[in-house]
């Protein structure tokens, strides 16, 4: 009974998040954190940051990856199935309805202005999530160095119009973390051998 109730709470929470998120998975992160960390206390901040990192690094949309992982963590297999379905259902229904009337829908000036307003909101949501994650992140020499290097590369490549995929940023940053771990491990073994 407890597991069923938890699954249903998870389903309706994720359905609400899926219904009120505009701008894709990155915009959804702010709502996920607010709902799951701040309001319901189902996850702590460090765990949520780990979930976002894993969801961003694995293939597929970040919203679906995050929902699947969160659902599994909170209610195992059925939790992951229900959370994933709940995040996908609102988008599917809305896009299906819009596709039926797309040509007529886009001719309205009001709709055009609404989309422009939504775009501004999405930029704000993504920016605020980035700042909050930066604030909550553990500040170490590695994390600060990787952040500054990525920031410099992003700005430089944007100004110079160099096409550099975000996948490479993730791979390079992950490789740097693994390299630092391996170096520390080797240094630790040397210290115990001496």
Give structural notes.
- The chain has 194 residues and is mainly α.
- Helix content is 85%, strand content 0%.
- It has helices spanning 2-19, 25-39, 45-57, 62-100, 102-106, 109-136, 141-159, 166-193.
- Helix 1 (2-19) packs across helix 4, helix 2 packs across helix 6 (109-136) and helix 3 (45-57) crosses helix 4 (62-100).
- The radius of gyration is 20 Å and the shape is globular.
- 19% of the residues are buried.
Question: How is this structure best summarized?
Answer:
By secondary structure, the protein is mainly α. It contains eight helices and no strands.
Helical element count? Answer: 8
Measure the end-to-end span.
57 Å
**Overall 3D form:** globular
Q: What's the number of extended β-strand segments? A: 0
Could you state the order of secondary-structure elements as H and E? HHHHHHHH
Quickly give the structural class.
Answer: mainly alpha
The domain tally reads: 2
Q: Roughly what percent helix?
A: over 70%
């Amino acid at each position: 009974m407890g597991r069923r109730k938890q699954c249903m709470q998870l389903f309706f929470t994720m359905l609400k998040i899926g219904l009120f998120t505009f701008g894709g998975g990155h915009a959804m992160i702010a709502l996920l954190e607010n709902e799951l960390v701040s309001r319901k206390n189902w996850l702590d901040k460090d765990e949520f940051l780990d979930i976002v990192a894993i969801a961003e690094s694995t293939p597929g949309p970040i919203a679906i990856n995050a929902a699947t992982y969160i659902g599994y963590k909170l209610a195992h297999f059925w939790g992951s199935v229900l959370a994933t379905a709940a995040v996908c259902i609102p988008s599917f229904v809305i896009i299906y309805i819009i596709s039926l009337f797309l040509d007529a829908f886009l001719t309205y000036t009001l709709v055009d202005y609404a989309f422009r307003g939504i775009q501004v909101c999405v930029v704000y949501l993504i920016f605020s999530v980035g700042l909050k994650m930066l604030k909550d992140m553990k500040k170490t020499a590695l994390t600060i160095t990787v952040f500054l290097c990525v920031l410099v590369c992003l700005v430089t490549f944007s100004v110079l119009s160099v096409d550099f995929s975000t996948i490479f940023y993730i791979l390079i940053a992950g490789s740097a973390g693994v390299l630092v771990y391996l170096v520390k491990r080797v240094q630790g073994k040397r210290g115990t051998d001496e």
